[in-house]
Amino acid sequence: MLDPAQLAALAAVHRRGAFDLAAAELGVTPSAISQRIKALEDRAGALLIRRGQPCVATETGLRLIRHHDEISVLAQGLAADLPGLGSGPARLRIAVNADSLATWVIPALSATEGYLFDLVIDDQDVSQDLLRRGDVSGAITSHPGPLQGCDTIRLGALRYRATASPAFIAHWFPDGVTAAALAKAPTLSFSDADRLQDRWVGLHVGTDSPPVLPCHRLASSHGFVEACRNGLAWSMNAEALVAADLRTGTLVELVPDTPLDVPLYWQFTRLAAPALAPLTAAITKATKSALVQPG
User: Fold this and answer.
1) Secondary structure (3-state) at 188
2) How many whole angstroms separate alpha carbon 224 and alpha carbon 215?
3) How far apart are CA 12 and CA 144, in angstroms?
4) Of 146, 92, 150, nearest to 120 (Cα)?
5) Model pLDDT for residues 1-47, shown as the tens digit of each residue
6) Which domains occur in the chain, in start order?
């Protein structure tokens, strides 16, 4: 049987990126962390951590981290049935896209007890990769799967609106929202994986050659909205975040009534499914009203 303390050290080094930070998290010395990692590497017969800035787990290391996470979640589920075995809340690492976090995820998490959440914020188009690698136990993703060893639940769709301030539209789109104007008007990008603006342009602006969009980089959902209010750019904003602005006219749609709906799914490791059942139920309940439901 693998040593839980060694597995915890491995997970901490990978997620904190350094031996000293992992030591602080676990309440031991950096030397103890180093000894645990070496002992585990000797046991596994493989390199588990690539030392560097930051330190990152190898593929074998990620597999062991996933095993550690699954055991921790299963232990939490057992403690719920046998309270005498409880040793405190389990740490649960899940991938969440920023717009879901800004709109509906926090109420779902707050309705679930017994976990310390470690949220990895990434685009819904790439969060499944984190689950595939074993870096998280669950993910809010736009990919329906199937993914080996995982279950998938369809949640609904997060609706976006292409919005900007009236002054921005008057300045950059005096002759309408055309491909030529979009090639000059600045928009926003959350990260290199963020393709929402390009997808909306491809759907709602008639052109065989979509323009290259000039982008500000801004990794904040609320920052997107504030940037649009102040005339810095136009962008795709989650409808829930701009509904009041659209009602008052602080923001307007670039092209009226052209929403972009992004389907979302909750994917999680099958082994941990029973222990994750309360969180799964809370997520499903929260999205019934927060997301656009099919049909």
Assistant:
1) strand
2) 12
3) 30
4) 92
5) 789 899 999 999 998 899 999 999 999 999 999 999 999 999 999 99
6) 1-83 (1.10.10.10), 158-261 (3.40.190.10)
